[in-house]
Design goal:
Elements lengths: L15 E4 L5 E4 L4 H11 L5 H11 L1 E4 L2 E2 L6 H25 L4 H14 L12
Antiparallel strand pairs: 1-2, 2-3, 3-4
Helix pairs in contact: 2-3
């Protein structure tokens, strides 16, 4: 009787995606505490904070277009992900991670605010250059 078994299914993870500059859909899922610990242990000491940040963002990638990626377990696995993603994919993964936990409305507002600050009417003094 399947109904007598206790519920053991884990809840679905929240994911988000962003298109990178190469047109690839980069899908991410944030690491939980245990995954973060295990990855940090596997990576050991990393000489720069930037390299460490890059490794943990890359490790959150679960899918590039239709290709699935498992959570990396070794430094070589992380290096493979970084090589696959390149700077474009890592940037998109970071943007996708920033979307997690935000509503669709919040994301649209932030995109609109960024668009307006990057070249909207207020950024020009009105005189041609």
């Amino acid at each position: 009787m399947a109904d007598d078994k206790p519920e053991t299914a884990t809840p679905a993870r929240e994911t988000a995606w962003h298109m990178d500059a190469k047109g690839r859909r980069i899908e991410v899922s944030p690491l939980n505490a245990l995954e973060y610990y295990r990855l940090a242990k596997a990576l050991g000491t990393i000489s720069s904070e930037a390299a460490e940040d890059m490794a943990f963002v890359a490790a959150a990638v679960r899918k590039v277009d239709t290709k699935l990626f498992a959570l990396p377990k070794t430094e070589t696995d992380v290096e493979f992900l970084i090589q696959t993603l390149g700077f474009e994919g890592i940037a998109a993964a970071g943007l996708a991670l920033a979307k997690i936990g935000k509503s669709e409305e919040d994301i649209k507002k932030e995109a609109e605010a960024a668009k307006n600050s990057a070249g909207g009417p207020s950024s020009n003094s009105g005189s041609p250059q």
